[in-house]
Structure prediction request, 258 residues.
Amino acid sequence: MTDAPILEAHGVNKSFGPVHVLHDVDFRVYPGTVTALIGDNGAGKTTLIKCITGIYPVDSGEFRFEGKPVHVSGPKDVAELGIEVVYQDLALCENLDIVQNLFLGRERLKYGLLDEPSMEQAARDTLASLSVRTVKSVRQKVSSLSGGQRQTVAIAKAVLWNSKVVLLDEPTAALGVAQTKQVLDLVRRLADAGLGVVLISHNMNDVLQVSDRVCAMYLGRVAADVPITSDTRREFLVELITAGRSGDVGLLNAAEGV
Ligand SMILES: Nc1ncnc2c1ncn2[C@@H]1O[C@H](COP(=O)(O)OP(=O)(O)OP(=O)(O)O)[C@@H](O)[C@H]1O
Ligand SMILES: [Mg+2]
Prediction:
């Protein structure tokens, strides 16, 4: 882990109408590091990701990428920076095959036609680089894939574009034990390859297994942003999520969300 964050959010506030969802949120992503973003349902995790990626405009706050201030105003801007997101609701097209999904909206052309061989090869190479072995053909429709395989394709889509930061919103939520392991292995490999990875998860065992740091949100605030060590206990994380505080760590007056 290097000391400098690749992506930083400072003092982010976001309201939906009268509902103040994010309060002065600071969040950092480091290269080569898995940062877990945890919090109860409705804590604001997905909203924070959507603010970072320019899907929601923020009321106030600043963002830095590789140390420089950035203003993103949509998914295209963040993709250009090298930030890719895999949303909770995957956003793959079921009726398209793996290659078509990977290149959707960014198809490779040759002489004005789709360059299928090149896209197929890139799809195979990307899956192979991620050590994905369970997908039989890159021409399989997504509708014929298992949940874990779909998640893998969504992650492959995110890393195909030489990304530097990958944000994963609950990639293992719907997966069985074996598939969860595959996706977590993939998450680790991305970080080991130098990417800054954010893992949103409700599964504290997954978080402890694969993450280097954890940012815990409670009622739209950051309750703690700490490294995970061999001493980090599951109960500590659960207390941060459910009470905003554990021992000396966390928000004062957490019960009021202050
Ligand atoms: N588009 C929206 N309009 C109005 N309120 C919203 C919108 N999106 C989110 N919220 C509210 O913001 C709060 C945070 O939601 P968010 O989806 O960020 O939570 P989360 O931490 O991702 O939860 P989960 O673990 O269930 O995915 C919730 O109270 C939610 O109702
Ligand atoms: Mg969410």
Observations:
- The helical segments are 45-52, 75-81, 98-102, 116-129, 147-159, 177-192, 204-210, 234-243.
- The chain has a mean pLDDT of 90.
- The CA atoms of residues 44 and 220 lie 5 Å apart.
- Residues 7-91+162-256 form a domain with the Rossmann fold fold (CATH 3.40.50.300).
